[in-house]
Specification:
This protein is α/β, with parallel strands linked by helices. Helices cover 44% and strands 19% of the residues. It binds S-adenosylmethionine.
C-alpha cells in the first residue's frame, strides 16, 4: 500500500484494532452473492445510488462534514466506505464479521477497517471524533437499539450527522418472522419506538424519509435479475445459495407489499447539551 495512505490512516484512526493476521473463514456465500448481484460490494437496498442520496442529504444538513472523519457501521464488504472516501471523507468501516473485513481490506485499500462490534464502538474509538456516521441495513441486526445509539452518540463529534437506513416494522400486529443470512432473527426498526429512543439518547431527528416503494422496486429488480441470470449465478455460486437468496428476498418483498415491513432513512444530529446556568 502507498506509505502516505498508511500514514494517513494511522494518524486518523490510531486506536483501531488490526485483525488482518487472524485466520478467517470465507465470506458468507449468500451475502457474497448479494454483493455481486448488487455490484460495488454493497449488501443494502439501492446499492451505490442510496449511498450518494444519503451523502447529499447529510451534507445539506452540515456542509462541513468532510472536515471530520466518517465511520460506516456494519460496513460489510466495504462498498459504502469506498464511496465515502471518494467523496472526500477519511473513512473507517467497522464490522464484527472478520471474513467480510478481510475482503474489504483487500478490495478497498484506501479506507480503514476494523473488527469492532457496533454496540462497543465507544470502547475502542475516540469520543467526540466522527462527523458522519452511517448504517446501511445494519440496525435491523441489532436488537438493543438503545445500546447501539448510545455508543454511537459517544463517538459522534459536535455537529455530526447520524444516518440510519433500514427496514421498518410498519404493522407490528403482524409478525415478520425474518431471519438474516447468518440465520439470526431480524429486528427492523419500529419507527415510533426508534424515534423515541433517538431522542432519549440525545439524537435530534432532523428528517425521516419513507423509502418503502424504493425498497419494493429494488427487490423486484433484484429478483428479476436473479431469474434472468439464474444459470450464470448458479455456476458462479451454487444452486443452493441462489435458492436461499431468492427465497429470503421473495419473503421480504411479500412483507413489503403487504405493508408489514417498510423501508426508511433517519437523519439525526447530536444534540448540544444546554449550558448549565451559573449559580
Ligand atoms: C446486510 S449487511 C450490510 C452491509 C453493508 N452495510 C452494506 O450495505 O453493504 C449487515 C452487516 O452488518 C454487520 N453487523 C451486524 N451486526 C453487527 C454488530 N453488532 N456489530 C458490527 N457489525 C454488525 C454484519 O456483519 C453485516 O456485514
Amino acid at each position: 500500500m502507498n506509505p502516505a495512505v498508511s500514514l494517513l490512516k494511522l494518524l486518523y484512526f490510531p486506536l483501531v484494532i488490526n485483525s488482518a493476521t487472524i485466520p478467517v473463514e470465507a465470506p458468507n456465500p449468500q451475502r457474497m452473492l448479494l454483493s455481486h448481484l448488487r455490484g460495488g460490494d454493497h449488501a443494502h437496498v439501492g446499492d451505490a445510488e442510496s449511498v450518494h442520496m444519503v451523502i447529499k442529504k447529510a451534507l445539506a444538513i452540515n456542509n462541513q462534514l468532510q472536515k471530520l472523519p466518517a465511520v460506516d457501521i456494519g460496513c460489510g464488504f466495504g462498498g459504502t466506505a469506498e464511496i465515502l472516501t471518494q467523496k472526500g471523507f477519511k473513512t473507517l468501516g467497522i464490522d464484527h464479521d472478520r471474513s467480510a473485513l478481510t475482503y474489504a481490506k483487500k478490495h478497498h485499500p484506501s479506507c480503514s477497517f476494523a473488527d469492532i462490534d457496533a454496540r462497543a464502538v465507544d470502547k475502542y474509538l475516540r469520543a467526540d471524533f466522527f462527523g458522519l456516521i452511517t448504517l446501511f441495513n445494519v440496525a435491523y441486526a441489532i436488537k438493543d437499539k438503545q445500546a447501539l445509539l448510545k455508543a454511537l452518540h459517544t463517538i459522534a463529534a459536535p455537529g455530526s450527522v447520524l444516518v440510519v437506513f433500514d427496514y421498518t416494522h410498519r404493522d407490528t400486529t403482524q409478525p415478520h418472522g425474518l431471519v438474516d443470512f447468518a440465520k439470526q432473527p431480524m429486528h427492523p426498526l419500529v419507527p415510533a419506538v426508534f424515534t423515541h429512543t433517538l431522542d432519549e439518547i440525545g439524537w435530534q431527528l432532523v428528517e425521516q424519509d419513507d423509502l418503502t416503494s424504493y425498497f419494493i422496486t429494488s427487490y423486484q429488480a433484484l429478483l428479476a435479475k436473479i431469474d434472468e441470470q439464474r444459470s450464470y449465478w448458479e455456476t458462479v455460486s451454487s444452486p443452493t445459495v441462489v435458492a436461499t437468496v431468492e427465497k429470503t428476498f421473495s419473503q421480504i418483498l411479500h412483507l413489503l407489499q403487504r405493508d408489514v415491513l417498510g423501508g426508511a432513512v433517519f437523519y439525526c444530529v447530536k444534540k448540544i447539551a444546554a449550558p448549565r446556568a451559573k449559580l
